[in-house]
Every structure is written in structure tokens, then in C-alpha cells.
Design a protein that fits this description.
With 277 residues, the protein is of the alpha/beta class. Helix content is 37%, strand content 20%. It is built from nine helices and nine strands. Residues 10-13, 18-19, 42, 44, 79-80, 107, 110-111, 116, 213-217 line the site of (4-amino-2-methylpyrimidin-5-yl)methyl dihydrogen phosphate. It catalyses: 4-amino-5-hydroxymethyl-2-methylpyrimidine + ATP = 4-amino-2-methyl-5-(phosphooxymethyl)pyrimidine + ADP + H(+); 4-amino-2-methyl-5-(phosphooxymethyl)pyrimidine + ATP = 4-amino-2-methyl-5-(diphosphooxymethyl)pyrimidine + ADP.
Length: 277
């Protein structure tokens, strides 16, 4: 036996920049074997989302049961969930199959501004999934929605909101700072907060590109792919961010649409990064 099986439970993005397509590219680039359970189809390009077709919760369960009674899964990334029925199906599978290394990216709104999670389903993500995940990776607007708070405008407020997410039952929170502007805009800093540890910051240069479609999907998938390969969560986060930043640096080489283009996954970079560690 060699290699790790990494499962993405997420929506489909035909443009290939986000969702399960981004997740599979990331898993492959980082040496994982990718599997998928699809929660929704989107009609989407780099310019926006024109439609969402949710998969019925019973069929999400059917996909999960069929896969998980057959295959070992070493880590899970959860992305777009659409509605409360799908959230319940995923929560039940985490418990029933004792899934481990679960990374929850609480996807709510696409980069284009289109909504991917029904507003009334936010409470379901908070109550059903947040306590079941080993790590949640909200961006600033998602943390605010989960908390019913204003969006953080500084690293200090991000830290306070991450602590509040722990109080709500999260095991670990990586609050992503990509949406932070102002004084911090030369860098992109994410904050990892876990019980019994001081907060850790992960900072990368801010890449000058408007092609950021799929950054959140890529980061959470990279963490899931690396968790079984690394000693601890901070090491997986560090290397996942390095992978993402490199993919962002090369984003402008692609020509995948007229809107916010995707980041560029390329296996050879990871070889170089992996050799350093
Ligand atoms: N221009 C950029 N340069 C470097 N890193 C970025 C840039 N934009 C976003 N990131 C990083 O991408 C990841 C996801 O970013 P963020 O925008 O916060 O979340 P989401 O993609 O979910 O909206 C974070 O690690 C963030 O720091
Ligand atoms: C199917 C699907 N899942 C997730 C995202 C979020 O990705 P992003 O915030 O980078 O647009 C997306 N646009 N589409």
C-alpha cells in the first residue's frame, strides 16, 4: 500500500478553477489520490455563477455510503454544501464512518459575489459541521457570517473572531486574511488558532493578480492532502500556503476566461517545495 486517499465533498465548477476540479488538481499535485462526492452542480465561469443545481441529500448520502463502505479515506476536504439537507448528510457520514483529518472550508459566496450556500443553511454549517471538523478555514466574510458579527478589519479582530469560533465548538480555526486591505495589503496573512497554543500567523507576499478564483478551495485541499503526510496541522498549513502562493504567482500564465481567472496548479513546483522539507 502506498499513498493517501483524499476525499473532496464539494460542488462542481465547470471552469475548473474552484470546487471539486480545483480540489482534484491540488490533491494530485501534492501526491494524494483524489476521490469526490459531488454536492451541487454550478453553471459557472471565471465571470460568475449563472445557476446552481443542488444534489438531493439522499443522493449525497448514497455517494458517501457507496464510497466509504469500500475505500479507506485518509483525509477529507469539505467545500460547497448548498443546503441544510446536504449538511445533515455529510455530518452523519463523518460520525458513522469516523472520518479523520476533516478540513471544512465553509464556502458561502463565490469570488464573483454569487451565493453558494443558502442563508438559512449557515446555522447548519455552524452547528452540525463546525464541531465535527478538525480544522475550519473561513475567510473574513465567512467568519463574520458564522458569528453574526461585522467583518474583521485587522489581524487583532481576526484573532478575536477565531477565538469566538473555538468557543462555538471548532477544534482549530485557520482564519484566512486574503480579504484584508489597508496596511496589511502587501502581505496575505492567515491566522491559525487552536486551544492551548498561542495563535500562529502564516504570511505570504501578496501576489499582484486579479486571478484569485479558487484560492480558498486550493488552500483547504492542500491542507487535507498534506495532513496525512505531515507531523502536525501547522506544518500542513505552512506547506499548503507555500503551494497556493506559488500557484497564485503563475495564475496570469493561464487564459481560462475573461473574469477572475484561476490559480495555476503545476506538479513540478511541488517537487521543488517538497525537496526543501
Ligand atoms: N493576492 C494574494 N496573494 C497571496 N495570497 C493570497 C492572495 N489572495 C488570497 N491569498 C491567500 O489565499 C488564501 C485564500 O484567501 P481568502 O481570499 O482569504 O479566502 P477565499 O479564497 O476563501 O475568499 C489565503 O491563504 C490568503 O492568504
Ligand atoms: C463549486 C464552487 N465551490 C467553491 C467556490 C468558491 O471558490 P472561490 O471563493 O475561490 O470563488 C466556487 N466558486 N465554486
Amino acid at each position: 500500500m502506498s499513498g493517501y486517499n483524499i476525499l473532496s465533498i464539494a460542488g462542481s465548477d465547470p471552469s475548473g478553477g474552484a470546487g471539486i476540479q480545483a480540489d482534484l488538481k491540488t490533491f494530485s499535485a501534492l501526491g494524494g489520490y483524489g476521490m469526490t462526492v459531488i454536492t451541487a452542480l454550478t453553471a459557472q465561469s471565471t465571470s460568475g455563477v449563472t445557476g446552481v443545481h443542488a444534489v438531493p441529500a439522499e443522493f449525497v448520502s448514497a455517494q458517501l455510503d457507496t464510497l466509504l463502505t469500500d475505500a479507506r479515506v485518509d483525509a477529507v476536504k469539505i467545500g460547497m454544501l448548498s443546503d441544510t439537507g446536504v449538511i445533515g448528510a455529510v455530518a452523519a457520514a463523518i460520525d458513522h464512518y469516523a472520518l479523520r483529518n476533516v478540513v471544512l472550508d465553509p464556502v458561502m459566496v463565490a469570488k464573483s459575489g454569487d451565493r453558494l450556500l443558502a442563508p438559512e443553511a449557515v446555522a447548519g454549517v455552524r452547528d452540525e459541521l463546525l464541531p465535527r471538523a478538525d480544522l475550519i478555514t473561513p475567510n473574513i466574510p465567512e467568519a463574520a457570517e458564522l458569528l453574526g458579527a461585522d467583518e474583521a478589519g485587522s489581524i487583532e479582530t481576526m484573532g478575536a473572531q477565531a477565538e469566538r469560533l473555538l468557543v462555538l465548538g471548532a477544534r482549530r480555526v485557520l482564519l484566512k486574511g486574503g480579504h484584508l486591505g489597508g496596511a496589511d495589503s502587501g502581505h496575505s496573512t492567515d491566522l491559525l488558532v487552536e486551544p492551548d497554543w498561542p495563535p500562529r500567523t502564516f504570511t505570504a507576499e501578496r501576489v499582484r493578480t486579479h486571478n484569485t478564483h479558487g484560492t480558498g478551495c486550493t488552500l483547504s485541499s492542500a491542507i487535507a492532502a498534506l495532513l496525512p503526510q505531515r507531523d502536525d496541522v501547522p506544518a500542513a498549513v505552512r506547506d499548503a500556503k507555500e503551494y497556493l502562493t506559488e500557484a497564485l504567482r503563475h495564475a496570469d500564465e493561464l487564459d481560462a476566461g475573461r473574469g477572475k481567472g484561476p490559480v495555476h496548479h503545476f506538479h513540478a513546483w511541488w517537487g521543488a517545495v517538497a525537496a526543501d522539507h
